[in-house]
Amino acid sequence: MNKFLFICKERKTSYGISFGLFNSARFVSESIKEMSDFESKVIFVKDMNEIDKFVTEYNPTHVFIEALWVTKEKFLQLFKYKRHIERKWIIRIHSKGPFLANEGNAFGWMNDYIELGKEYPLYISVNNLEFSIDLNKIDYKNIYLPNIYFPKFDNFCKIKDKEHFDIGCFGAIRPMKNHLQQAIAAIRFANDKKLNLRFHINGNRLEQNGDKVLSNLRSLFNNSKYELVEHDWMNHEKFINVIRQMDMGLQISFSESFNIVTADFVANNIPIVVSKDFNWLPFWIKSSCTDTDEILNKMNLIYHLPIVNILNKTYLKGYNIRANCIWNNYIHGKL
User: What's the CA gap between 39 and 32, in Å, rounded?
Assistant: First the structure.
């Protein structure tokens, strides 16, 4: 019987544990157990040296490594042990090209994995169909295994603050997330509608020169009559409770492969505008990343037409059905 183990590297920094990859792996793992009688679980390891210990203890048929962090040398060491050679090892890539371009030697890592895959059962998987196709066309062979959105939370929801209009623009602060442009659009929207804006971000998760983005955001709101609210990084359950207090969401980023934050907004019936990089959502909530007038038009649309939120959820459900089918075919050996 197939048995699946998803391994995340424990990345403790000034903002705490990184939950993004863990949530992605957890949702897929829970979905696998839901759709089959197979066992599956997600673990954190401190470093590469703990992989052998936990894999040996759990004895899975499939080992999923979340993101690019296990070296070629470590895999060669693992493959020397007969107990590991029959397992399938899959590296899950959670980003598209524009983001990977800022991640040091991402394609160098993939080159190593492809070379090893010629001799050992080591594979690359990508969670975005467009990027998966692009890679396959340039001989970076990979399996398309999409994200699945499978959260478990209650239906409790506090009454929103009627004195403020709360817009959430969550996620790690880095240039590709486009926070500043979205903040400008939010301020213009509040001015037009005469709303008392609070603009919410994750203020302590800075990546790829995100400190400069945060500095500019703070300066922007210091010169306005509105409030910038900075939230700490938090686990998914706490984050959902924050999401439920929002009146609107913005995720108009330059590059996305899925984006769990957006799925959180959609699942909780909070209107949201996204960039054109979100292939699982309808066109009417998608905007240019740099055209503030277009962003405002989409914000006005979702503000005045609440029915859009229900349609968004239908698109999320449709995406999940397709994603579950792909994973179901994979775990039963049909891919």
Answer: 8
Give the pTM: 0.90
Tell me the domain boundaries of the chain.
Answer: 3-145, 165-318
In the structure encoding, which two tokens stand for residue 128, read together?
A: 């975005």
d(CA 53, CA 45): 10
Residue 148 clears pLDDT 70, i.e. is over it: yes
Superfamily of domain 3-145, CATH level 4: Response regulator (3.40.50.2300)
CA dist., res. 250 & res. 294, Å (int): 13
How many whole angstroms separate alpha carbon 100 and alpha carbon 151? Answer: 27
Name the one residue in this structure whose structure tokens are 């004895």.
59
Say if residues 200 and 168 touch (Cβ distance below 8 Å): yes
- Of 17, 20, 14, 12, the closest CA to residue 211 belongs to 14
pLDDT, tens digit, for every residue of 105-145? 899 999 999 999 999 999 999 999 999 999 999 999 999 99
CB 249 within 8 A of CB 299: no
Structure tokens at 185: 């659009």
| Separation between Cα atoms, residue 187 and residue 270, nearest integer Å | 19
* CATH architecture of the region 165-318: 3-Layer(aba) Sandwich (3.40)
Amino acid at residue number 308: V
DSSP 27-55: HHHHHHHHHSS-EEEEEEESSGGGHHHHH
Nearest to 252 by CA among 299, 197, 308: 299
By residue count, the chain amounts to 335
